[in-house]
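Predict the 3D structure for this chain.
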Amino acid sequence: MDFSDMVAGENGLLAELRCNDFFNERIYTDIINYLNKYSPGWKLSGFIPVNDAVAIFDLIDGLSGGSRFWSEEVKLRVEDAVIEIQEIISTLE
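Done. Predicted structure below.
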């Protein structure tokens, strides 16, 4: 599964959240591993490929938007995920 599919694909993290009110830890771990693997190269080059940048924007937007249908447990997990993703992205500065 490529990065954009992990985030916004038919079986991606955001689809699981929207359709099933479920935070898929396996997909989330794959996303974090991808970000940790590629962010040092992005920082060195000063460039994030467009398809990865769009997926990152979708991820942050989709998680930050929340949902009134999520359980308290999912809401807290999403909040933690947003913080973790922001920490990774902030290393690009």
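The longest helix spans residues 25-45.
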